Amino acid sequence: MVYYTQNSERKVTIAQSAIAGGIASSVTRAIAQPLDVLKIRFQLQLEPIQNGSKYSSLLQAISSIAREEGVSTLWSGHIPAQLLSISFGVVQFSTYERLTQTFQRSDPQFYINNQNYLNFSNGAVAATFATILSYPFDTIRTRLVAEQKINKVYKGFSDTLLTMIRHEGASSLFKGIVPTIAQIAPYAGIQFCMYKLFTESIFNRLSFFQRRKAIGSVIETTIIANVIAGSIAGLVSKTCVYPFDVIKKRLQIQGFQQHRKAFGRQMYCSGSLQCIMLTINEEGVLALYKGYGPSLVKAIVVTALHFTVYDEIKHFILQMHK
């Protein structure tokens, strides 16, 4: 991660940030997709997670899915997931860099004095904007992951898109967007704030974590430091906002329950508050953390990869233009 100093003039352009963000998101998605599939399957299971339920543990879920539906099911919905990740990464990182550079140019001292707060707010605004633009890919991805592969409802990405619009209306592509925005703004804000706190205020001051080849007056942290910082950021941010993700997933499959009867009981709700109340009343408060295990592993892996790959691409671009 590049440590900002007032004398530093080397920055990537907004277009370069967009490219780096898109590549980082694509690489991360390809690696972490199975964890996302496991997380969604657990989130949509109404029965208690215990022996005898459809999915009772990570290893049991992987074995069950591979045996009943094939190993490729662990990459269900990968095309819309990639479209989601790339579009989200492009918009999020380019918007974040634009906001950050605007503050740096307009009032450098204000930026330095309020860096942690600005990292949080810039990350939250950038993620909210990216979420609204990329959300339909998220809904389609969830539908493809939610269906049973031995009893398919959709033929693929295009068929899911057209079928949903034809039978449920275009607004169905935005089901669950309210809890999603409630989740993503603080989630991304915490991610950026924590990651930059460690890379720009802690690790970059320790010689062990400093990259030897610095660019001008800019101090850079090593890959190891970026991975550790990203892991911490992922763990903290996911733990704080996880219940919103559970509610979002349950709202995204409303109107699709009849095709999921093989997975057990289904929930029928018309909005976020009703979904929260039904979940707590029927399954208990801890149900808001169903799928937390694979989700936490995914959050740690994804955040670490996302930020690290993004910063390595930025470092490569800056080195090329030395």
TrEMBL record:
<dbReference type="InterPro" id="IPR018108">
    <property type="entry name" value="MCP_transmembrane"/>
</dbReference>
<dbReference type="GO" id="GO:0016020">
    <property type="term" value="C:membrane"/>
</dbReference>
<dbReference type="InterPro" id="IPR023395">
    <property type="entry name" value="MCP_dom_sf"/>
</dbReference>
<keyword id="KW-0812">Transmembrane</keyword>
<dbReference type="GO" id="GO:0055085">
    <property type="term" value="P:transmembrane transport"/>
</dbReference>
<feature type="repeat" description="Solcar">
    <location>
        <begin position="221"/>
        <end position="316"/>
    </location>
</feature>
<dbReference type="Pfam" id="PF00153">
    <property type="entry name" value="Mito_carr"/>
</dbReference>
<keyword id="KW-0813">Transport</keyword>
<keyword id="KW-0472">Membrane</keyword>
<feature type="repeat" description="Solcar">
    <location>
        <begin position="12"/>
        <end position="102"/>
    </location>
</feature>
<keyword id="KW-0677">Repeat</keyword>
<protein>
    <recommendedName>
        <fullName>Mitochondrial carrier protein</fullName>
    </recommendedName>
</protein>
<comment type="similarity">
    <text>Belongs to the mitochondrial carrier (TC 2.A.29) family.</text>
</comment>
<feature type="repeat" description="Solcar">
    <location>
        <begin position="114"/>
        <end position="201"/>
    </location>
</feature>
<dbReference type="InterPro" id="IPR002067">
    <property type="entry name" value="MCP"/>
</dbReference>
